[in-house]
Sequence to fold (123 residues):
Amino acid sequence: MKKMNEMIKNLVRKYDTTNPIELANHLGIIVKLNPYSEKTKGLYVKILDIPFIIINSNLKKEDQNFLLAHILGHILLHFNQDTIFAWENSVFLQGIQENEANEFALRLIAENQTNPINYQLTF
Ligand SMILES: [Zn+2]
Fold:
């Protein structure tokens, strides 16, 4: 998807980072960890108009990073102003949107192949 690739390149250029936590922060999104059960990989929620992404801290670090990039993809590609809640592993999101969010995450990570990401999610 050409448009998606352009969107990612613009984001990376604008904020000078491929780190999904930094990108989320630049977009006004707060990233948190929480030890959910296996059923919940993570979720997106707006509380008093402030958007949060909450990731299951029981996931492996690489999976946390991928999921964060994946949810950023949903936010940029699929969600709108009215989206106040979305839950990964749920029926809220259609298969095609899942594929697009995965593609977004893979492309974002690929942008940084020459300069590997080295960071951890923290509270
Ligand atoms: Zn998803």
